[in-house]
Amino acid sequence: MKKIIILMITSIFLIGCNSSGGSNLVTYDNDKLAKEIEEKGFKPKLPTKFPIAIINHEISSPPTNDHFIVDFTGEKGEYFELIIWDKLVTWNDNSNQEEININGKEGSYMSDEVLMSTLHWRDGDYDYILQYYHTFSDTKIAKADLIGIAESFQ
């Protein structure tokens, strides 16, 4: 009987350790977005999953033409911003950054939990900055959710 109880407790513990907040992601069809970005001369990886349903995206490019911004909007006003640079981006202040791993690539996570949470990583020729703005919606998006989005890039 003790072995069964120990086995059950161990199983529950392992399941808890292996589940991430990013596991409840929904598929995002990025085909239209990919075509729009290719027309601008970029071929980066793009997200294929989000923790919420995305209903709209908008692309903007500054005149410098070295990066572009994609704004993603969810059903309840959730707002994600993806900035993709075709050059190396560095932060001036590293004091609030937490080191993370995204598909074997080093990255960083920062959050003030009031305004926004930010992921930054480099993959191939592009630097990616993914931000979730807490102020636009009551929907809670955890660090694991942001990492799940980043890990879905294809």
Automatic annotation (TrEMBL):
Lineage: Bacteria, Bacillati, Bacillota, Bacilli, Bacillales
Top-level taxon in the UniProt lineage: Bacteria
Full protein name: DUF4367 domain-containing protein
Species: Bacillus carboniphilus
